[in-house]
Amino acid sequence: MKDPYAALGLTRGATDKEIRSAYRKLAKEHHPDHNPNNKKAEEAFKAVGAAYAILGDKEKRARFDRGEIDAEGNERGPFGGGGFGGGQGFHGQGPGGGPGGAQFSQEDLGAFFSDMFSGGGTGADFGNGPFNGRRRSRRGADRSYTLTVSFEDSVLGTTSRVTLPEAGTVEVKIPAGIEDGQTLRLAGKGAPGVGENAPAGDALITISVTPSSVYTRDGRDLRASVPVDLETAILGGKIVVPTPKGQVTMKVPPHSDTGTVLRLGGRGVAEHGKHKAGNLYVTLQVKIGKVDPKLEAFFAEKREAETAKEAQDA
């Protein structure tokens, strides 16, 4: 398999942000939905997903960089990434090993040689030879992906259909209240297992929430600023307020000013499990809008009267 850094067009010094950015760009470019019946794009999409499964996971990336796992996330052989070479040599003396040497049982060695000569997938058996080469079953590697959802979907919850390179199209349930950076686990949707009846790995879906131009989040509560005209602010009245579930009508008390905060109960993050629905806190922003000539004349007369009084008092 291609080196994961090369698959994403990066070098080993790439930052986490550069890795995420490269993955999103390439996954979008080669996504099957954008390239129907394009085998080359499908293979590229799989390669990009597999590369991100390694580099998008800090622990796996570190292990790959140290040579502990290969580009598919599999453990490297007991003799290191160089097999019998690499300057390490083989120091065991017989099945039990010798002083200061590596000690491996016949079963360990048999599994190793079976993996080596079977190409990792044929299930070759060395019978009753000196290594008792029975192939070991191994759980499939986990795969990491990123799913972008809107702010509204993150607070209300939704179900999204996504296409995974090794699991096809699956439904991902987004719970109400999920936050940016949280990860969902899809059991058995990762890489297939190796060996008879070996379980598949999991798909780890990291959620990326698109910021909202209307709302900010405060725990389970939401906050928004809403304009109100001068007349309604002075006399009170009703205004239409946007909420993630749709618009609602809200009463504004008389003599409200900019900065006045009103509460809409249950209109924040939706109820989920043991968590109750949050509230939406609306901050009023008084907007003058088009000025009524009568109102303008009123303030002009008021100013003239105050100026005249000041002159008289002087």
From TrEMBL:
Residues 70-105 are annotated as: Disordered. It comes from Asaia lannensis NBRC 102526. This is DnaJ domain-containing protein. Residues 3-68 form the J domain. The keyword Isomerase does not apply. PANTHER family: CHAPERONE PROTEIN DNAJ, DNAJ HOMOLOG 1, MITOCHONDRIAL-RELATED. Keywords: Chaperone. Residues 78-101 have a biased composition (Gly residues). The lineage of its organism: Bacteria, Pseudomonadati, Pseudomonadota, Alphaproteobacteria, Acetobacterales. It holds the Pfam family DnaJ. It comes from the Bacteria. SUPFAM superfamilies: Chaperone J-domain, HSP40/DnaJ peptide-binding domain.
